[in-house]
Structure formats: C-alpha cells, structure tokens
Design a protein that fits this description.
It is a single chain. The protein is built from three helices and three strands. It is α+β, with helices and mostly antiparallel strands. The protein has a three-stranded mixed beta sheet, covered by helices on one side. α2 links the parallel β2 and β3.
Length: 110
C-alpha cells in the first residue's frame, strides 16, 4: 500500500464509519463528540489502528461501542485493509472540551 492510499483509507474510516457511529446516549457521532483520539493506517501492513476513549470508564457503551467501531471498519470492504485494532485509552480523560464546535452547537452548549 502506498502512503497516499493509507491516508485515503484513514479518511474513509473517519467519514464512512466514525462520523456515522453514535454514542447511544448522546445524539452526536463519536468523532465530533471527541471520543476518537487517533486514526492511523500503516501503509506497510494495512493495519488500521484507532485510539478512542469513552465519556467515562463506567460508560454503559463500554461493552459494545469499541466492537461496533471495529466491525464497521472491517466492513468497509477496502482491499488494502488487513486488520483493525481498537485501543481504549483513558489519558487524556474525555471532557466536553474535546467536542467539536458542531457537536456543542447540536447539543445546545453555547
């Protein structure tokens, strides 16, 4: 895979999966909500790596949301995508300042 292909695949992951996956308790997608800290596709191995967090360690979606993200990325049907690794991280902890301006506007937080 070329580096440019890896970047295009990263963009597809963000646009076709992360911006279309919603926290079950908040009507905002997980990307705009600020739960995604990093998306990388290794051009050598074809492995997509996503670092994400949850709104809190006790979040009810903790048992399902990471698996949902992984499944949706796998279903992208990208020939160059060889594997998906989701890493849940707690540092830095999520807080509302991580939300995009669009998310804050959607939730009436202005």
């Amino acid at each position: 895979m070329r580096a440019i292909d890896a970047i295009q695949l990263q963009d597809r992951i963000v646009d076709d999966v992360l911006r279309k996956t919603y926290d079950p308790e908040i009507p905002v997608n997980i990307y705009e909500l600020g739960l995604i800290y990093e998306v990388k596709v290794d051009p050598e191995t074809g492995v997509a790596q996503v670092k994400m967090t949850l709104t809190s360690p006790g979040c009810p979606a903790a048992g399902t949301l990471p698996g949902e993200v992984e499944d949706k990325i796998r279903r992208l049907g990208a020939a160059d995508l060889k594997d998906v690794k989701i890493e849940i991280v707690w540092e830095p902890p999520w807080d509302p300042s991580k939300m995009s301006e669009a998310a804050r506007l959607q939730l009436g937080m202005f």
